[in-house]
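Q&A log
Question type: sequence-to-structure
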Amino acid sequence: MKKLVLVLFVALLTVGCKMDKEEGGELPTVDVDVDGDMGELPEYDVEWADIDVGTKTKMVEIPKVVVVMEEEEVEVPYLDFDMPGEEKMERSITVEAEISGNEHDIEIQEIRASQNRLYVISTLEELDTDLDGKTMRIQDQVEINAPDLDVKHIIVGKKVDRAFNNNYTYVDTMNDLDDAVKNANVVYKK
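Response status: OK
Response body:
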């Protein structure tokens, strides 16, 4: 039994490596008198796998985002809501889209109101300029002074397949707006 365990142990040690036998082995000799020579196990020169770790130079595509933000004084639409018994606060309503392929233009065309909800309707139009594999974000905004209202964005145009663009509802044309939006009061029109 001990020999079997020893053979299995040696077999496990030799898996995945290269061995060169350097000296012969000899089994122990056993006398019937229970006296015996201990014997000698064979010696092996074990060469383990040589592994080099480092770096190498390789050409890969790495996304780069270049955002240049400059402050400029521009005219932006401003809406001032007067709702009886409601406190107002100034804020920006911004619509954004992340685009690739060709350059696009996004513009807020209308804002409609119904009860405590604003429907911000924007158009997304594809332009001719190729972005050469780059991705960019575009936006438009309107300033409002109004009570805290629920804002729902609807974009008329083809949705660009980017995860960022899942924040809004997209429709093909103004005729595709649902009845709640169609029946809301137009409070701003470009």
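Response note: Residues 2-14 form the longest helix (13 residues).
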